[in-house]
Amino acid sequence: xxxxxxxxxxxxxxxxxxxxxxxxxxxxxxxxxxxxxxxxxxxxxxxxxxxxxxxxxxxxxxxxxxxxxxxxxxxxxxxxxxxxxxxxxxxxxxxxxxxxxxxxxxxx
Length: 108
Known about the structure:
Elements: H1 3-11, E1 17-21, E2 27-43, E3 46-56, E4 64-74, E5 77-80, E6 86-89, H2 90-103
Antiparallel strand pairs: 1-2, 2-3, 3-4, 4-5, 4-6
């Protein structure tokens, strides 16, 4: 698959329902509003595609959340690999990113 074809495939879930199951029986249902994709690592027979998703959970106190996860591609097969990923309300994700920014050295 070409990079363009993979990106097209990875964008297909946008606009569709999402559902999370939590340990202990919790479930959260929403809709994937938007997605950003970054081609990541290549090696060990696989390519990786990082995704940052904007998800709306209409029943939650905070409606919009960010999920950071990834897909794994082997040959022409590209599958969701983020069974365990971080998903937080936008205000928590902003706070986390401010903390991460402190860790990143300035660009040269």
